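Priority: low. Protein: DMT family transporter. Input follows.
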Amino acid sequence: MNKNIYGSLLILLSASCFGVMGILAKYAYAADVSIGTLLFFRFFFAAVLFWSWIFYKKTSYRLPIKQIPTLFMMGTGGYAMMAILLFTSFSLLPVSLAAMVFYLYPVFVVILTSLLSKQSLEISKLIAILFSLIGLYFMLGANLSQLNIVGLICALGCAILYAVYIVQTEKIQNYISPFVSSAYVTSFAAIALFIFTILRQDFTLEIHSSGWFAIFGIAFFSTFLAILTFAMGIERIGSSKAAILSIFDPIVTVLLSSVLFHETLGQTQKLGIVVILISTLLTHVSRQKVRSTTKSEKSTFHDVTTRRNA
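Result:
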C-alpha cells in the first residue's frame, strides 16, 4: 500500500479511537468513576499493554540516559498535563466550546513545524486548517456567550501542549520505536496522574463493573491503540498532515452520540461534518501534489543531467 495512504489511514484510525473516548467517559461517569481515577487507570492499563507487547516481541527497550528526560516530559508535561487541562476545561466550559478551542492545535502544529524547519507556510495547509475550523464551529455549535476565562485558558493550554507533543513525537521517531516511546510516555503519565489523584484524594477502587468496562475501553482504544497508530502515522506522513487529519475525531464522537444516545444531528452539524471531510480530502490531495511535484523535479533533473553527460 502507498506509504501516504497507509499513514493517512493510521491517523484516521487513531482519530476514531480518540473520538470514542468521550462516549466511554460518559459511561464511566454514569458509574460514578471520578476524573482522577479514570485518568490514572487510562494510562496505567495502556502502559501495561505497551510493555506486555514489548516483552512478548522481545523488543529492546533500553534507551540512552539522555533520551529519558524527553520521554519523561512527554508523559508528565505532555499527556498527563493535557488530560488534566482538557477535563478541567470540560468542567468549566460547554463541551462544544472547550472542544472548539482544543481543536485549534493543528494551527499550532503547522506554525511550530514551519518555525522549526524555517520554511514558509503552505497555502494548501492553511486552507485545510481554515475548512477544519469552520467545520468544527458548525458541527460543535459552540456558544461563545458561555465563556469562562480559566476554562478557556485550560483548553488553549491543552491545544498548545498537544501541538508540542505532536512535533516532538515526529522528532523522536528517528531513533525510538513507537512501541517503546509510547510505553515510556504512558508509564510516566500514569505515575504523574497517580500522584495528582492522591493529592486530590480522588482515588478509589470501588468501581462498578460497567465503570471498569469503560475504563478498559478508554485504555485500549483511546490510549493504547490511538497513541500507537498516531505515532506510526506521523512516521509516514509528518506532523502537520497528521494534525489536520486528526480533526476527524469529533465527527466520530458526534455520530456515535447520535446512535448510542439518540442525540439528533442538526443541519448545521451535518454541514460541519461535510466541511471537515472536505478539509481531510484537501490535505490528502495537497500531499499527493507535493509528492508528484517532487518526483517531476527529480525526473527533470535526471533528464538534464543525462543530456549534459552525453
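Residues 60 and 115 are 34 Å apart (CA to CA). Confidence is low (pLDDT under 50) at residues 290-310.
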